[in-house]
Task: inverse folding
């Protein structure tokens, strides 16, 4: 009765999440140190502002007048955001911006726009597991390029170029990257754009963590760097801690004719569903405007949360990490790489069982063995209590404990 895709979609939970459910059923509290839902960690857009902005916008939208690209004022507000951060207007022209219900669906649009069944989209490895599912639903395949931990999680550009095949249809760049925190510098972006140009490939630039840089600013962007076609994806989900609003966008830039062709097809894809809530679109200019101060405050709190995390982690030799340059996550390298450690699955399960702390083993993100991933965007009190406990458990030396082989990737 069901399609091949449907048979791959039954969401069986893995051992770690079964253990979490078991502990919760016994009444044990679990501190989730990995969820990217920052609202749960106290990062919430002021409620009074949400009510005021949406109230005003709803009065503006009593008559339904949809636009396949999204309301003009919403697209202008997005373009204005880029102008204010110093991007060239030609790369963020309101005429070439499409409003989407979040960046996840923008990915799906891109995959549908660029790939036929069986074509490949090149994504970073490791990465957030969202893209496997989007690719599956869009009927394309994911191929991966390597980010090299020994090189500060830089993109292995030679490797990337070597895995391009005749079926490759796009290169995905995630910067700041989830979960390594890598931010591509000017040179890396230029080199990537050069590869894209030589192989006539579009770049899909996922910039959802653009406002949360922990090092250098501004963020180097592929738009305007010379690739034939660039799709810049972002939205309010992380930027304003408003994931429930489902407001995102893609800005299309590059060679004029390619941009026009992309926009023509995107118009039809988007028109088929007209998916973004009209009130939210009408509210977008005010969310940008009144959200400015909120955005800066979140960014500051997140920088402080990272500084605290870094200080607490530094107290242990059991974990090491490459300092994230942006985003919400850090990949922790366990000290057991010599074969004496517990293994990442066992480490994650022990932290959950003994400390009630949930972090992910690195294989969830297709990382090499012996990593844990945590989100440091938490209440400082939670970090202050949980990280020392975590470090203490991970520092306990129990050599000879058999390491568990990583099961298959997936949350
Ligand atoms: C790298 C990355 N891209 C995209 C998304 C999805 O963002 P949105 O909420 O805009 O769909 C996430 C969500 O965590 C993410 O981590």
Result:
């Amino acid at each position: 009765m069901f399609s091949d895709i449907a048979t791959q979609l039954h969401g069986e939970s893995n051992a770690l999440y079964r253990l979490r459910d078991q502990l919760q059923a016994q009444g044990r509290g679990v501190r989730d140190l990995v969820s990217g839902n920052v609202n749960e960690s106290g990062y919430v857009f002021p409620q009074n502002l949400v009510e005021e902005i949406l109230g005003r916008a709803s009065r503006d939208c009593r008559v339904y007048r949809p636009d396949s690209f999204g309301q003009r004022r919403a697209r202008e507000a997005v373009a204005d955001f880029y102008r204010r951060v110093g991007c060239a207007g030609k790369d963020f022209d309101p005429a070439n911006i499409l409003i989407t219900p979040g960046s996840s669906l923008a990915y799906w649009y891109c995959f549908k726009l660029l790939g036929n069944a069986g074509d490949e989209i090149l994504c970073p490895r490791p990465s957030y597991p969202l893209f496997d599912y989007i690719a599956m639903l869009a009927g394309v395949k994911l191929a991966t390029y390597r980010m090299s931990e020994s090189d500060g999680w830089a993109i292995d550009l030679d490797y990337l170029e070597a895995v391009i095949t005749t079926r490759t249809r796009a290169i995905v760049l995630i910067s700041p990257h989830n979960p390594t925190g890598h931010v591509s510098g000017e040179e890396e972006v230029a080199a990537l754009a050069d590869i894209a140009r030589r192989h006539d490939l579009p770049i899909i630039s996922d910039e959802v963590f653009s406002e949360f840089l922990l090092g250098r600013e501004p963020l180097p962007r592929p738009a305007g760097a010379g690739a034939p076609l660039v799709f810049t994806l972002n939205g309010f989900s992380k930027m304003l801690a408003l994931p429930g609003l489902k407001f995102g966008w893609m800005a299309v830039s590059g060679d004029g004719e390619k941009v026009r062709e992309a926009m023509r097809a995107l118009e039809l894809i988007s028109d088929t569903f007209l998916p973004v809530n009209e009130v939210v679109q009408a509210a977008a200019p005010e969310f940008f405007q009144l959200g400015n101060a909120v955005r800066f405050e979140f960014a500051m709190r997140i920088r402080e949360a990272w500084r605290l995390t870094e200080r607490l982690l530094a107290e242990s030799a059991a974990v090491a990490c490459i300092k994230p340059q942006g985003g919400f996550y850090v990949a922790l390298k366990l000290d057991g790489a010599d074969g004496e450690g517990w293994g990442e699955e066992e480490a994650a399960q022990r932290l959950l069982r003994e400390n009630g702390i949930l972090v992910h083993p690195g294989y969830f993100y297709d990382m090499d063995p012996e990593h844990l991933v945590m989100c440091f965007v938490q209440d400082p009190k939670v970090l202050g209590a949980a990280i020392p406990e975590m470090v203490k458990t991970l520092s306990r030396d129990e050599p000879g404990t058999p390491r568990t082989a990583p099961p298959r990737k997936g949350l």
